[in-house]
């Protein structure tokens, strides 16, 4: 009888150990699966982190025309190769435009430079400029006249240089009239007479 009790006890212990082993094994498997999920979640999180860093930034600042932007308009006259340059503040309809906006809407202008501080636009014009001058006597002073009438007059400016202060040969040339083309040449001419 004692053998039977030992056998039953032995059998119960084996069943008990088997149940505990199965339970421990199941818990380990479950923990391992949880650990795998945690690792996969971390991997996904890390991937999302790197993906977020690699995405292009949408808030890049694009240069736009502001009320304080200096607008420079250059008119290149093809016939006499003279460029007239005009500086101005931007008109209201150019405020907040980008370089692409200008290129799209003002196709007859070439954009030479573009920044929020300064925009330089150039336009080619068929014909000649108004920078054709004649230097001649005007009431005893050197007068500057446009070669062609502008707004009903040829007179551009009267200088404070008296004609009699010049050498006689120069006085004779000025009385006949000296043709000058371009503002730069005009400035050099006047500087040579001390204007």
Describe the structure in brief:
The protein contains four helices and eight strands; from the N terminus they run H-E-E-H-E-E-E-E-E-H-E-H.
Please specify the SSE layout and strand pairing.
Layout (H helix, E strand, L loop, with lengths): L1 H53 L15 E8 L4 E7 L10 H7 L4 E5 L3 E8 L6 E7 L2 E10 L2 E10 L5 H9 L1 E4 L1 H10 L3
Parallel strand pairs: 1-4
Antiparallel strand pairs: 1-2, 3-4, 5-6, 5-8, 6-7
Strand order of the largest sheet: 2-1-4-3
Instruction: State the end-to-end CA separation.
Output: 141 Å
Please tell me how large the radius of gyration is. Answer: 45 Å
Instruction: Average the pLDDT over all residues and give the rounded result.
Output: 79
Q: What's the multimeric state?
A: single chain
Tell me, briefly, the overall form. rod-shaped
Total beta strands:
8
Q: Estimate what percentage of residues fall within beta strands.
A: 25-35%
Helix content: 40-55%
- Count up the helices: 4
Low-confidence region ranges: 47-52
Characterization of this structure:
By secondary structure, the chain is of the alpha+beta class. Among the domains are: 70-125, Roll (Ubiquitin-like (UB roll)); 132-192, no CATH class. Helices cover 41% and strands 30% of the residues. The protein contains four helices and eight strands. The strands form two sheets. A four-stranded mixed sheet has the order 2-1-4-3, covered by helices on one side. Strands 7-6-5-8 form a four-stranded antiparallel sheet.
Q: What are the salient characteristics of this protein?
A:
four-stranded antiparallel sheet; rod-shaped; Ubiquitin-like (UB roll); 4 helices; alpha+beta
């Amino acid at each position: 009888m004692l053998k039977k009790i030992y056998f039953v006890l032995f059998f119960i212990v084996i069943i008990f150990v088997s149940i505990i082993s199965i339970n421990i094994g199941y818990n380990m498997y479950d923990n391992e699966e949880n650990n795998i999920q945690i690792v996969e979640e971390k991997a996904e999180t890390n991937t999302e982190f790197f993906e977020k860093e690699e995405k292009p930034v949408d808030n890049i600042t694009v240069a736009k025309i502001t009320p304080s932007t200096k607008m420079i308009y250059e008119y290149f006259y093809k016939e006499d190769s003279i460029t007239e340059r005009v500086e101005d503040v931007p008109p209201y309809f150019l405020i907040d435009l980008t370089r692409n906006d200008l290129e799209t809407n003002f196709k007859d202008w070439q954009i030479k430079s573009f920044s929020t501080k300064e925009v330089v636009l150039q336009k080619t014009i068929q014909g000649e400029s108004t920078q054709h001058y004649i230097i001649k006597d005007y009431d005893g002073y050197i007068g500057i006249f446009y070669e062609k009438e502008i707004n009903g007059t040829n007179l551009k400016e009267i200088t404070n240089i008296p004609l009699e202060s010049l050498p006689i040969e120069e006085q004779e040339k000025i009385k006949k009239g000296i043709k000058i083309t371009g503002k730069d040449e005009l400035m050099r001419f006047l500087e040579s007479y001390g204007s």
